Amino acid sequence: MEVHRRLDLTLMRFNILDEIAAMKSSAQWNSTGRGAKTLVKNDELRIVLVALSAGKAIHEHHAEGAISVSVVEGAIRFTGDGKEQGLRSGSLLALAAALPHGVEALEDSAFMLTVVIQP
Fold it and tell me: pTM of this prediction?
């Protein structure tokens, strides 16, 4: 069980590879093949680490703010603004606010999702 932690400190540091390893060793990953952990959440910004096993998807939805997706490992298919983008480890994508988008893992993958919160 994770100990409650603050998501809105003025300075925060994470080892993303350790976070992914912990996520992939969790009961949730073993039963669903997916996981997500909010790392930062404040009035201006959300940063979420997402892991999906091959073939898993996040169906089309939208975020109120602009987003970025940075692939840490694996490969995903990102669909947004009516276009498909294949993204591999090391890729970064930005999408304007409120546009429908979805993600499918082409292989076991992890990515950082950043959402800019509009005032």
Answer: 0.93
